[in-house]
Amino acid sequence: MSLLKGKFQQQGYLTREQLKEYAKIQNISYQLVKKVLSDLGIKIYDIKPGERTNKTDKGYEKCVLCGKKTEIKSSHPISDRDYYEKGVGQLCRECYQDL
Question: Which domain of life does the protein's organism represent (predicted)?
């Protein structure tokens, strides 16, 4: 688990690929890794590639986790956005606070 802890502290999140790699190295199932982390109170968000640029038809971003429309315009620079998580995408305030 120290490998996952180190990556989490470095990045601020873990990817599905990192969890699968850890499971393979440890010779355990990916589902078991997810269950253990969940039992420890660590939320698992399974974001699939391509779901990161969710925009509404009115030009506002959607939260990549819950799909809720955010108050962030899609034209707003990423570097100046609130609740944007590098490597994950745009989040709503509630999902960002849950992380």
Answer: Bacteria
27 burial (CB, 10 Å; 0-12 / 13-18 / 19+) is exposed
Decide: pTM greater than 0.85: no
Query: 55 forms bridges with which residues in the sheet?
Result: 61
Residues 6 or more apart whose CB falls under 8 angstroms from that of 54 comprise 61, 62, 63, 64, 67, 89, 90
Q: How far is CA 52 from the centre of its chain?
A: 10
- The rounded radius of gyration (Å) of the Cα atoms in the chain is 15
Annotated domain spans of the chain: 2-39, 60-98
pLDDT in tens, 36-81: 887 777 766 666 554 444 555 578 898 888 888 899 998 899 899 9
Q: How far apart are CA 82 and CA 9, in angstroms?
A: 21
